[in-house]
Amino acid sequence: MIPFTKAHACGNDFLIVTEEAADGNDWAELTRQLCSRNTGIGADGIEFFSWTESKLLGLRSGRIRLHNADGSIAEISGNGTRCVAAWMAEQVGSQPGDVLEIATDAGLRVCHVNAVHATGSFSVEVTTGMDVPTFAPRTVTLADGTKIDGTEVSTGNPHFVVFVDNAEFAVQGRSWQEIGTEICVHPDFPHQTNVEFVRVVSSQEVEIRIFERGVGPTTSSGTGSSASATAALTVGGCASPLRVIAPGGPQTVCWPSPKSELSLTGPATLIARGEAWFEPSTEVQPG
Question: Same domain for 8 and 23?
Fold first, then answer.
């Protein structure tokens, strides 16, 4: 049996499993089984967690390793990190003003707890430092010769951001889901990429759609919101702070200047806690 906690941030859902509970198992296979929407618990990924020591924060620090729903490894998820922050906050009894440190494969993320709501369900509002993003213009040529202009952004993981001018988020007459599917695995991105489609509503508000690497279309993404804001603030004519609205809800990005750290603010809620059966595959793998 594998103990887990399930949490979501704007509908982007994750399982939190301690490394101790997962010890001895194939994490990729475990993730695929538990994240299956029909035969498992269902989630966009698993954050494997271990407590770490911090000279300043004591047990308010931890280490996470993320596997996407398909079992692949991802450097970081902004929403997944915030879900872990909610779990840590509940575990240690955090109050507004507290700080939590979370080490990821993309570096340390410092999470400031702005609010705690413990009536009914447990939820928090957190501002996370997302490091300094990098960005550059890029054109991707699709298999049929169509050229898609966008902005390549790194928020600790890879993104390709495309601006659209319609409520359907269509690109050159094709759905964003179709375009996202092809760009995600395009040869230009040997490790694949997340793809965001951005519609500017005003100078301080954008709407986005997200095709997440290893998952597909998702209701929200913290790093996707950060990448979308990076593009909107640098080439889209927008201003900080920027409200980024995904289907799962809004998040706020603050990025005063290209050389400063970008911060992301949003909610995270604990959904359930339980145990799951896990049956390792007995199939012999090729090779």
Answer: yes
184: domain CATH number is 3.10.310.10
d(CA 9, CA 269): 6
What would the pLDDT profile of 157-166 be if each residue is shown by its tens digit?
A: 999 999 999 9
- Angle of helix 222-234 relative to helix 78-92, nearest 10 degrees, comes to 130
Look at residue 186 and tell me if it is in a domain: yes
Query: In sequence order, what are the beta bridge partners of 171?
Result: 174
CB-CB neighbours of 257 under 10 Å: 9
Domain hosting 165: range is 134-260
Q: Using an 8 Å Cβ cutoff, are 81 and 74 in contact?
A: no
Question: Which pLDDT tens digit goes with each residue over 111-122?
Answer: 999 999 988 889
Does 176 lie in the same domain as 88?
no
Q: How far apart are CA 218 and CA 246, in angstroms?
A: 9
| Residue 286: pLDDT band with limits 50, 70, 90 | very low
> Is residue 287 assigned to a domain?
no
Cβ-in-10-Å burial (0-12, 13-18, 19+) of 57 comes to middle
Q: DSSP state, 286? A: P
CA-nearest of 277, 279, 280, 250 to 265 is 250
Query: Do 142 and 114 lie in a common domain?
Result: no
The model's confidence at residue 18, banded by pLDDT at 50, 70 and 90, is: very high
Residue 60 lies in a domain: yes
Count of domains observed in the chain: 2
